[in-house]
Design a protein that fits this description.
Length: 143
């Protein structure tokens, strides 16, 4: 009986540790980082998804070296990623980063990307001709 209670205690502790990491990015390697970002994004409220995605890819774009990138995102929550993304935006905007010249603020950029995403989703179900006609308007995030 003592053995069973010890095993149960160990299992409970392991479960708590695993659950605590469920809201953080697993930066063990790039594959696990991308998977955990996808899972985290799907758990976020719809209004935070674009901001989280843009933040994550802004970080990725600014840190080309995999080790540096993984160190920057490993163990971060979605809110921490968003905060870091905003900071990088401000740094790049102040440095005259070409992709940001059309945006007056972080919020303006996120609003524009959100609208573009909504437009893309509204195009789903259109005919092939309409899709081909709209192809020139596909959203590519220029970070």
């Amino acid at each position: 009986m003592k053995k069973l209670s010890s095993l149960l205690l160990i299992f409970c502790c392991a479960s708590l540790v695993a659950c605590g990491k469920g809201q953080e990015i697993n930066g063990h390697n790039t594959s696990t980082a991308y998977r955990s970002v996808k899972a985290l994004k799907n758990r976020l409220p719809a209004e935070n998804r674009i901001e989280f995605e843009v933040s994550f890819w802004t970080i990725r774009d600014s840190k080309k070296d995999d080790k540096e990138f993984l160190a920057a995102v490993d163990g971060k929550t979605p809110q921490e990623i968003i905060t870091l993304g905003k900071e990088l935006y401000q740094e790049r905007k102040a440095a005259g980063f070409k992709g940001y010249e059309e945006y007056t603020s972080w919020e303006n950029m996120i609003t524009k990307f959100s609208q573009e995403r909504n437009d893309q989703e509204n195009r789903k179900g259109k005919s092939k001709e309409a899709i081909e006609k709209d192809k020139a308007n596909d959203v590519l995030y220029k970070l």
